[in-house]
Glycerate kinase
Amino acid sequence: MFPTVYHCFAKYFKINLFSCKIASMSTDFLCKDARAIFETAYKSVQPLNLINKEVEINSNSLQIQGKSFPIFKNVYIVGFGKAVLGMATALETKLQENLVSGIISVPDGMLTALEPRLRDHITTKSCIQVYEGASNNIPDENSLLAATKISELVASLKESHLLIVLISGGGSALLPAPKPPLTLKEKQKVISLLASRGADIEELNAVRKRLSMLKGGKLALLAKPAKVISLILSDIIGDPIGMIASGPTVLNSDNLSYPLSIIEKYNLTHELPKAAIQILTEAANESEMDDSFSNVSNFILGNNETALQAAAEKANDLKYQSIILTNKLRGIASIIGRKLISLIIAAVNKKCLDENIKELELSSHIKETMLEATSQLQSNGKKICLLFGGETTVEVKGSGLGGRNQELSLSAALELYTQKPQNDIILLSAGTDGIDGPTCAAGAIASITLIEEAKRKGLNPSSYLLNNDSYTFYSEVNNEWWLVKTGHTGTNVMDIVIILII
């Protein structure tokens, strides 16, 4: 069977080709459908689409979600994150002569992903300066330079100015401004150690805010007395605006001692740089910030729910019965992958779902919905698409190469192989930003066929999983068949997990 190749186009980005070539015919079309559903999901949260939908310019007025702001050649833009290049480009087109200047910090490689015409405009004709940095989502000297330039611009604003702050996933790494005497290298060590111990994004950002000169509302304070508008693409479960990119325009409402308690939770007190412990200890004894944020308006333009709804509509078009089970999926990736498959097989076999639902933190009403759907699967052969959104974490125990979505998928594939369900089931887990860990993949597909193929090649899938080496595993089986590769999508609303059953 020849590979089925799908062309995925975005308005501003060249998305790589991706393909699906699998032995079984049923798995082949499930793979095709899953990729089409995922493509629809992340394209629904492309910056151009969101800006055009939510932002309007009428005469000398900027209108966002029903709220108006007067403008007259007084607008400045700063931004940081995986989606802000597209957001900034779309806004510049709308604002025209009202935009004075801007600075944005984007991931390495983002400019080269642009279409040549747009890249030429950004680099030679735009009044917005673009800085690339934070390779593999790790703060570096380039992103530190960008943060410094952003700080200088923001600090220079006057009362008559309007600052638009563009924020999306990846923004924390692209706006590093460590609080002295902490160095960037020391701050990186703090975050890396926390991540390796399994700290979730809320915990990571809570620590980042206390160690930063700009996060936790400090960017908005620096902009005073200018008016501040934040346009946010959420990449965190529940859309807490104080956590997205570590909340640079939101009053930090965390308990002052919370960051220090996180360090203690993961037994890192004696492993972190002394400067970090000093800053967190001093912060725990400070008085609460009482500065007014009346000059700030924050707007969420899109989130994981936006992508899930688009995915569900696409699945319905493909004749699946689609069910969105949650947009709050979290936990250790290798465990979640296994539990998702256990939940699905239990539902198909009409076994007790209570334990799986509880472990996955799903709503209790999900039980009835799933049982009804799987009954239709058995009675009239209706295809089912189950959708999950959220973001898992990887507990690093090995030295391999991979990402949370590839690890979740490999874990799910092993569980499918172990349980060997009668129905054909595949799982696709991928990041809407197109990048999963320090790899070129957005995610991967799980199927019994994957494990069977690996074993025919003499590979031991479990050993790869234990070594956090999911990318290497998929590459050695055949990465073009099983990995989901899109390149930078120019957006980020966490991850999408698609499970198809026939």
Notes: The chain has a mean pLDDT of 90. The chain is about 40% helix and 20% strand.
